[in-house]
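Task: sequence in, structure out. Protein: SnoaL-like domain-containing protein.
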Amino acid sequence: MNDESALTIEERIYFIEQREKIRELVCDYSVAVDDRDIDTIANLFTEDGVFAHADGTAAMESRQEIVDFYDGRLGSMGATYHFPHGHKITFVDETHASGIVLAHAELSQEGKTYYTGLRYMDNYRKEDSQWRFTERLLKFVFFMPMEEWAKDGMAQQNRKRFPGEG
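Result:
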């Protein structure tokens, strides 16, 4: 859908409403991850959904693989808090869209609080009147202990210092 100005007012209202529903999907994901609500996480992805790190280090290629990943991953972490910020949504048609989400998260691991800047590159599909992720690629812009970030972390060349890597 390159020329939204050619749409009728009713069609424009429809896509405004759908944008809001996709934004709710992203918010629901953040809350479900922070609340360790695996059933909700599962329902937010299509059966053939993909969740992967954009750098290729991890890829789950079905709803069940995504559930298994989160079930194991979240059990080993302390508290988390995800903050979705800017969200650009582009519609392909009435039931398919893509999006880029800018976000931050605070994570507790190994007795430390980590701060991370994230980008999610998403694809969405509307199924049974509900928008779901068909693909969610996660890119870490930075990831480091909070005290390092507050000191001078963004000025450092290595802005990705993950738990267990020193």
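The radius of gyration is 17 Å.
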